[in-house]
Amino acid sequence: xxxxxxxxxxxxxxxxxxxxxxxxxxxxxxxxxxxxxxxxxxxxxxxxxxxxxxxxxxxxxxxxxxxxxxxxxxxxxxxxxxxxxxxxxxxxxxxxxxxxxxxxxxxxxxxxxxxxxxxxxxxxxxxxxxxxxxxxxxxxxxxxxxxxxxxxxxxxxxxxxxxxxxxxxxxxxxxxxxxxxxxxxxxxxxxxxxxxxxxxxxxxxxxxxxxxxxxxxxxxxxxxxxxxxxxxxxxxxxxxxxxxxxxxxxxxxxxxx
Length: 257
Prior knowledge:
The chain has 257 residues and is an all-alpha fold. Helices cover 84% and strands 0% of the residues. The chain has helices at residues 2-29, 39-48, 50-84, 86-101, 104-114, 121-144, 148-156, 161-195, 205-214, 218-246, 248-256. Mean pLDDT is 83; it is low at 250-257.
């Protein structure tokens, strides 16, 4: 119990000091909301419009979740192919790296023109592309970076490549997979949110932030930002919980260290 409290109270203390300093700065310097709204104003806007906040967060989270699923599946498939065929690795790795460097603000308008702008499709595709790279890179490392002695043992047992993959490579890649997933999950929320700035349905957080800022409702805009932060944290914590459920020993060791 004391150990758990020891992990919890430092971030709470830092957050309290940070928010207190922020509130004090706004009050002492008499900063206007368009420059920097006070945390008290943001909290007031968040509580008064909680239903709208969570509705927009749910819409963005759904888009992010779909992109995360599609990007993860595609990343796993390409990683398995890259491990099996060296040519695929040489072709896909530079392509995945190139896609990862493309700015979302450049990618989204192109996909909006290619697909129906009133649907989620462009936003889901943007999110999937952003998710693909960390999943592909980490899983590929996990599949390839296997101890030579273990591979030699599998060869001595005359194991087929499929058996080696199932018994040795995939278990070895699971921690790498969750490392990539913990990076990709918050990124999926960011990608979905940014993609919502460029037209399409207006139910998401990105659209609501832009609309509130355009109408000089800066406190409300920051309240939507707070909802986006909470959504990203929920995604991240969900992946950690899934990791602990599937690989409890691995998660316990990583927590200890």
